[in-house]
Amino acid sequence: MGGLGKTTLAKAIFNTPQFDNHFDKKIWVCVAEKVDRIEEVFKMILESLTGGKVEGDRREVIVQKIQDELKEKRYLLVLDDLWNNNQDGLLDDFFSTLAGLNAINFTRLQEVETILSRHPLINFTRHELGKLCGNDCWSIMKKWANVEEEVPKELEDMRELVLRRCDGLPLAAKLIGGLLYNKKRKEEWLSIFEESLLNGNPGGIEQIIKVSFDHLSPAPVKKCFAYCSIFHQDTELEQDLLVELWMAEGFLQPDSQNQTMEKIGCEYLRTLLQTSLLEEVKKERRTWYKMHDLVHDFAKSILNRNSSNQDHVKELPTSIGKLIHLHLLDISGSWIRTLPESLCKLYSLQTLRIGMLVEDFPKEMSNLISMRHLHYDDNFTRTEIQMPSGIGRLTCLQTLEFFNIGRQEEGRGIQELGTLQDLKGSLEIRNLELVNGKDDAELAKLSEKPNLHRLVFEWGNRDRESNKCDEDVLEGLQPHPNLKELQILKFMGDQFPQWFMNLTLTSLVELRVKDCTRCRKLPALGQLPFLKSLYLTGLENTTCNGLSFYSSSTFSRQTFFPALKFLSLESMKNLEEWKDAPKMRSTAGEVHVMDVFPVLEKLSISDCPQLTTIPTPSRFPSLDVLEIKKNCHVLLAEKVLSNMANLSSLELSGGSYQRIESLELVRRPESSLSIVGCNSLPADTLERLCLFPTLQRVELTSADNVTTLRGMSCAACLKRLTAHFCKNLRELPEDLYQFQALEHLEIWRCDALTRLPVEMFESCTSLRKLNLVYCDSLVSFPLDLRRTPSLESFSLCGCLNLITEMPTSSSSLRHMSLHGMPDTKSLPHQLQCLTAITSLSLKHFGAIEALPDWHGNLASLDELILFCCHELEYLPSVDAMERLKLRRLEITICPLLGRRCTPESGSEWPKISNIPERVIINPVRSHLKILINSFSLLDHLILPVFVPHSFSP
């Protein structure tokens, strides 16, 4: 049954914060349209994973990309609205390909449920979503009808009538509420019910949708609604795109009040939202809009329209200029990289969406006087692209996402922006070094553009001396007070302009100042009431964040940075002092300590080698995440880290830190500590982790003074422990058995480590993943896998002495990766006892010539990866390969075996011909030799480094 809220429930589950910690990847796929080929589902999954469009239909390529994205990850897949009830074969392919899948399927078809419940590859649990009770339906209806909590008695008398029509369906309650929006009289309710909702089937939600459509007003809203059905079901659309499309179709005609078409479009959108014919989807800081699938079906039924989408067009024909009535042209998803001059004849064109140009805009684009919106791809950042000459003539322009300043005499100067009074949204102004001074900058009239919410000011990327002209230019670029985001890049003035000091930008939410290497003094940012994010990067001439950082000389507020949640100080090479906030003296002579950073959650300090003085830790009462990275002074960490009781995440990297006991860290769950390149920490540092009883993640990288992990057993909540490049680490704790929560242990290039204690893993009942990588000195492997019942993945790479000490049995192990050496001639015989593994990777076994026949004993093996085994020529016998029943075989840089596996004449081909997925990649050195010999006068040859995708163990 449709309208029960299956998708709403799925979204609520999908977006539950606890799932973010449980799954590495979450994938949402709407299979609303009928799907007869599994490749289509796989493409949707890959597009959800990568966020980009997937070209081609080769199943093995698509599946390989999915597996690469999901390799060694725990993931959740939601299949929403699976319709096709003739999908036995499809499900066979699907669930056998994505083994280990956690999936939730939402469907309204009993037949699909039956197929799933009987399928041998699916552990199926059924959850039937029932109808809502009367009280819940009534509450939903009241919310969408915008009636008071206490409904007037005359309307309360109609409760049973409303509930009977809702029939327990939340979608019906929303639609009826939208129909009754702001209607306060009983007569208005009765009119709708008696005339429309009581006719026909009282339980049919399609009729309610039709009535909602019939009551849309004004009439053009119906056209806007129907137009939305040309997009695929579950498509999420931006407001600007929707309005521009409606405008291009002529649906938005200005009324007598002289409203703009954009404002009319926004009003129509609100109408569709109020009636629940469109739904709002919020993602991070952006809002999208979509149709419920039943509403989409109805909209399609009233719109007879065919649409085409030419994905592979690479150039626009010159005949495009004949489409003189064209209102919208969108080539952003195509391969088109140049625009013909004939485009400039489209005098009715209102919206142009383009991808990345490799040539300049057409010269006569200023003729497009109807242009209102010019959009470009996010990757389009080339500052050398010249703007159209005389763009200031496009006085209707509202969207212009960047402006590259050029020569004024060519009609590309900054004054072109002055006549564009309706600009809104985001604007990046580049090449500001070409502006002569304040007077020229003021010609842009940015202070008169209230709808610009984001501005980027960027000067050219070249070394320039301290430039008073830069200060004058920035002074003339004063924005409107409505501005919310501002970036200032490569400004070479000594100080910021007066409008910054005078706190003109009272609406500012985010500020980024980067590579302003001559700037000595920061403005009074502490008094910006709504500033949430502040990034200060590359201010090499700033030596002190002093009192002026918090306020101007006269201040009235008692809280500085009242809304700031994120603060980053990076590459401020000469910053020595970050002073505390000033104290305020009252009229009575009393001294008050000012509040500062009351809601700051994350502080990141990187590459500030001179900084030793900062505000007292009590100034950061809400700090949750602290990063001190790369080339920071030893005293900084000690001062910052003392008495910070609320931290849940700490990263120390690239510094000389002496005392970890000063940390008042991690009193909460989900806490983590990362130490990178801190060579001055004392040897007993980790013993002091007992201070942090709820610590869950510890990462040690290049911590040369760490010699032992003894004493860590008190960290009973620890789930992940990694030690990378700790060259003096000599021993692991024998009492590691107390780490009953440990799930992931990784030791990488710890050259001094010689043994793994016998007692080490005996009670690690939660250990799921173990990686030992390039620990050359390890000489013994006492691990009994039978005593690690949860171990699923084991990688052994570059530990030559351990290859012959392999464990012999495990019922839980599924993934095994072994890395041999160039002279390794045989595989460890213990492998044949690991009959439960499903994936085996053998890499760099340089001298082995044939795989043994006991490989056929690995009855559960699903995937075999062979990488860089140069002497390997033969697979196991035909009989052994048939017993393996592999689904996937990958052979990479195994030249002898690769040649024997060719379908034309390879002797090993019969052994692999029935494997569904085969990937064979061999180097082509002979081709390179031929190529080089063909160019006797070759001057330069650049060969990119080949990093094989399977290199990591």
TrEMBL record:
A family per Pfam: WHD_DRP
Start and end residues of each Disease resistance protein winged helix domain: 230-299
UniProtKB keywords: ATP-binding, Leucine-rich repeat, Nucleotide-binding, Plant defense, Repeat
Cited InterPro entries: Apaf_helical, LRR_dom_sf, LRR_R13L1-DRL21, NB-ARC, P-loop_NTPase, WH-like_DNA-bd_sf, WHD_DRP
One Gene Ontology term from the biological process aspect of the record: defense response
A molecular function GO annotation: ATP binding
Domain NB-ARC: 1-146
R13L1/DRL21-like LRR repeat region domain residues: 414-538
PANTHER family: DISEASE RESISTANCE PROTEIN RGA4, PLANT BROAD-SPECTRUM MILDEW RESISTANCE PROTEIN RPW8
Family under the similarity heading: Belongs to the disease resistance NB-LRR family.
Entry protein name: Uncharacterized protein
Annotated source species: Coffea canephora (Robusta coffee)
